[in-house]
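Morning!

This is the sequence you dropped in the shared folder:
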Amino acid sequence: MTAISSVRQLTEEHRLAQTALASRAAVQVLDGWQSLIQPRRLEDTTPRWLGESLDTIIASRTRSRDLAGAYLRLHRALNTETTLPPYQAEPAAEVITLGELRQDFADLAEIDLDPAGDDGLEVTVEDDFTWPDEDPEDLDAAARTALVVTGPVHARQRLAEAERATTAGRLDDVDFLDELDALMRAAGATAAAAADREALRGGRDLLHRASAADPRTVGWARVTDADPCAWCAMLASRGAVYRSRAAAEVKGRAGRNTPSVDPEDLERYHNQCHCQVVPIYSRTGWLPEQGRAFRELWDEATDGHTGQDAINAYRRAIEARRRRARSRGTSLA
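The structure's back. Tokens below.
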């Protein structure tokens, strides 16, 4: 059973649910690669794999979007005591309880929910908000390109290299067969990683565009998984990137040697990145709790450094902390 009594708990449950959803999509795409793709018949066997993989991503992307909508409604309610109308087209009541919002999220996140003391609290629904439409054609095109480039194109390039390295590329050559097996595994893994990212695109797209259309949102912040890369950890350490320059002019919050963060950077995700961007409704909530440790490490690691030198020093500090965490069986974040 799970209790969702704070914004932090909600955000972590949302991140975990989105990660699980994307991981299932990646496994399906990889299973299809292993069962359908034949290295000597790439042109013939790719279309079926690509079609089934796109179907998997589209279905997962829809679930990701629905989950993000439920998260955003509950997240806004916990922060502002007001919420948005239902994401799916249905009549909106003037009020809804926190308990109902929690249950809506829990159903989509596939978690069992513990009751909370404020479940009966009524929240006003601001019905003048319109959820942004999805652009399925653009999203489908991005997913198709990602799958083709990371899967068949990657395999074809590696196959040509292997054939040249073994002179004739004979199918009875043990070294060539070993190389062939390794390159096909690698191509399948990169395609699965791309599917993971494309599945999450639905929820990420909705969160960004819906919160950007919400006048209550003053900024956004990055929330990472437990083992982020140095770039994602740096973004998380920055705290909020504000909607307007005026809102961002808050003294004493930037930290030492802090590079500016382009708002577009918050929306950039690499393969197997399970970060989420969360809306901020108040300048007093400029840095989510999870980012504080990354901010402290930034200040410590970059003392005496500026610019790119500071970023490089932070990267080295993150990698050192990661090695220590793994040796102890703990997480980085």
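Headline: Residues 27 and 192 are 7 Å apart (CA to CA).

More detail when I'm at my desk.
O.
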